[in-house]
Amino acid sequence: MKKYFLLLLFAAAFAACNQPAKEEAKTAVEESDPNRFADLKILSYDASSINDLTTKQKELVYYLSQAALSGREITYAQNYKHNIQIKRTLEAIYKSYTGDKTTEDWKNFETYLKRVWFSNGIHHHYAEKKFLPDFSKEYFAELIEKSPDAEWPALEGETPEEMVAKLTPVMFDPKVDAKKVVKDKGVDKVALSANNHYGDGVTEAEAVAFYAAQGTAGEEKPIEYGLNSRLIKQDGKLVDLTIKSGGLYGGAMDRMIYWLKKAEGVAENEAQAKHIGMLAEYFNTGDLHQWDATNINWVNSTEGEIDFILGFIEVYGDAIGTKGAFEGIIQVNDKEASKRMAVLSENAQYFEDNSSIMDEHKKEKVVGVSYRVIDAAMEAGDAAPATPIGVNLPNSNWIRSTIGSKSVSLGNIVAAYADAGGTSSLNEFYLDEATIARIKEHGKLSGKMHTAMHEVIGHASGKINPGIGTPKETLKNYSNTLEEARADLVALYYIYDQKLVDLGLIPSLEVGMAEFDSYIANGMMLQLRRLDEGENIEEDHMRNRQLNASWAYEKGLADNVIEKKVVDGKTYFVVNDYAKLRVIFGDLLKEIQRIKSEGDYAAAEVLVEGYGVKVDAALHKEVVDRYESLNLAPYSGFVQPKLVPVMDADGNFTDLKVEEEGYVEQMLRFAEEYAFVKPGE
Questions:
Q1: pLDDT digits (tens, 9 = 90+) for 8-40
Q2: Could you tell me the domains of the chain?
Q3: pLDDT tens digits, 41-54
Q4: Contacts of 673 (CB under 8 A, 6+ apart)
Q5: How many other β-carbons are positioned within 10 Å of the β-carbon of residue 653?
Q6: HSE (CB half, 13 Å, CA atoms) of 483?
Q7: Residues 6 or more apart in contact with residue 672 via CB below 8 angstroms
Q8: What is the C-alpha separation between 38 and 44, in angstroms, rounded?
Q9: Rounded-to-integer distance, Cα 459 and Cα 485, Å
Q10: How far apart are the C-alpha atoms of 642 and 469, rounded to whole Å?
């Protein structure tokens, strides 16, 4: 619940890496660039900071990276029950096909495989809906037939022919398991979602009741029930399959434990070694009390230059916000950047005390807020190839309020996105030259500051009233949207505050103005390019942005705070009064914090359904039409650095080489080296 993605933030300011092109028509760019396909662009990030580490630190980075990569296939399996079989079938064809590889069908097959790799399955990584192959079922049968040496990933007792017959409608029929996550109001979101967090026949009501019965309403230290499991039915009874050694995904868990044990032996300090050992024990037992204890130790472990995130963490992929997706991010501290930004966490109490929220919802003492700018050294699972640019963890509310949290901005990821950006969409969607010039000059800094404040003071702010359950319990399917909206609003409220200038974080309030310009344009219209005609908004971050922007637009109508202008048939949203817009953002922040603090589900439903879901069809069509001429990929992700250990004659680690690797080459290597999840598991 505490990830922050670049497309949430830089979509307007550095829109080139997030713009759409027609998926059905290849451009000249796509023909010449193998890293550009469908609606995607593959980038690389600079991991050279690894070279500055000591030998022992390099060894630690390598072992942690191996642990993260060992669990990467779990994400495929969590996303959809047939993903592992489909992935390995496509990979087997790619390596074994003896037919003509110069045809348009083969190129379309390659594109489909690359999309499956990017999305960790057959459902779009962001839009959640299933994407279909641009080749026929007949061609798929031909690919199978002309791959005589392929090793097919059939289940036990299943023939290859039966496997293909099963997978063909799964891949080609748009009605079969159409959406990975369904969040529509008034439907059974668990039963209709295609993800693999729940077994066949499990309903939303059953799942909610099952986990509610495991805890006590209003308990002070609730564990995250159901975070690391799959809920299924056996003989008509609900059974929770725990992800652990010897349990669900046991092979992958054992490999991660193996590498964590090696990492424990080369830890930088005692606290870090303790955390690694505790995490390995959690992976061994699956005990969620151990997970909480591990997180507490991790929050308190702030020394050293290496840190990491590894486990079942974010719950966006579950319609009822219970199941954690596997992810891993291995981090190298950027000392200078972290030192410059430390002023944010040092002033966390000031930001809490001066927030627009009600006094009774403010924390008397903000504890344990730490912030670093880091370089990613390796990302895996739900964090790759599409990656966050900021993370704030742990997600447990009671740990955050009593112990603290850690926030990071992924500096080398942000830099890579910025380097890939351009300005063509600025000229298309912003009306006046002054606004365009302001975003060009200050957009990069405003984006960094928004990310930092979203993570450090946004998610760490506010408190829940005594006796009120966790947001997952009280706000249910709206909790993720409102949490991201709340953190965004904290950042927006303070980015146009003289305090940031006084602290030396920004040169002037022009930075805040640039962020307001970008945020309103993106929330009101730019992000609509990611939707198909007739769709509502379901993704939590998109709902959050539209909610904040459209609520602010409506509340400012009387004073013309945000003006909708149509010039030569083109729509623009222009901020006329930045000071009043800040007040409006503060008012919405106060209301959303009240909803969270009081557990007001009815008000949450009114806000999200009223402002964050419905789409203006005419405006949507206009945005899509205007983007078509720009030929820019709406989504970007990353190939990982290839980390190659250097060993001496006795097998001792002596160095770590950082090498580049192509996207297809890397995905095929990963498929060979980290295939630790069984088909059908």
A1: 333 333 322 332 222 333 344 445 688 999 999
A2: 3-50+247-630 (3.30.540.30)
A3: 999 999 999 999 99
A4: 69
A5: 18
A6: 29
A7: none
A8: 18
A9: 10
A10: 44
